[in-house]
Amino acid sequence: MSVFVAELVSRFIDIAVSLVRAKRHCAPYLAALGLLLNRAPLYGGPETVVSPDLVEHAYSAFQGFDWTEPELLELQTLFLRAARVVGDRSLDLPIPLRGLIAGKMEKSGVPPLRTAKIREFIPVGRSDRASLYDDSLPPGLVLGSDAGG
Predict the structure, then answer these.
(1) Which residues, at least 6 apart from 52, have a Cβ–Cβ distance to it below 8 Å?
(2) What is the dihedral of CA 108, 33, 114, 106, to 10 degrees?
(3) pLDDT tens, 19-48?
């Protein structure tokens, strides 16, 4: 992992937290963090996965917020990606941290069926790949506009 990526993750966390506290739109930063902190990269090997310490830093920064608020729903996707068990000790988060994240998500209404991927190893299936790597734009990002006419 490059120092640049670690710096980018830290900056995005700081910016997102500032935006959340100011009650401003932060979903694009959360979506980007979900991709940067992903445990199961689509286009790279294990060397492209960031340190579990960065996920712990992200969780510490966001744990005090209400993850059920509409603006913060992207936190659920972020941590489903960032805390997923991939079956590699060097990439997986420590069990206690995964338990905290799964617990926070379940208290926020995420069904245990979805958080099971945080608690134990479940191979990435076709439907997981579609949801983890879809080509949809992050929330709030729009290409062009319908200017009428």
Answers:
(1) 91, 92, 93, 94, 97
(2) -20
(3) 999 999 999 999 999 999 999 876 778 888
User: Can you read off the two tokens belonging to residue 95?
Assistant: 């069990």
| pLDDT tens-digit map of 65-93 | 999 999 999 999 999 999 999 999 999 99
Which residues does 36 contact at the CB level (< 8 Å), separation at least 6?
A: 5, 8, 9, 12, 50
**The pLDDT of residue 44:** 75
The two structure tokens encoding residue 108? 């926020």
CB 71 within 8 A of CB 20: yes
Q: What is the pTM of this model?
A: 0.83
Is residue 60 within 8 A of residue 54, CB to CB? The reply is no
The residues, ordered by sequence, that sit 6+ positions from 28 with a Cβ below 8 Å of its Cβ are 138, 139, 140, 141
Beta carbons of 132 and 124 less than 8 angstroms apart: yes
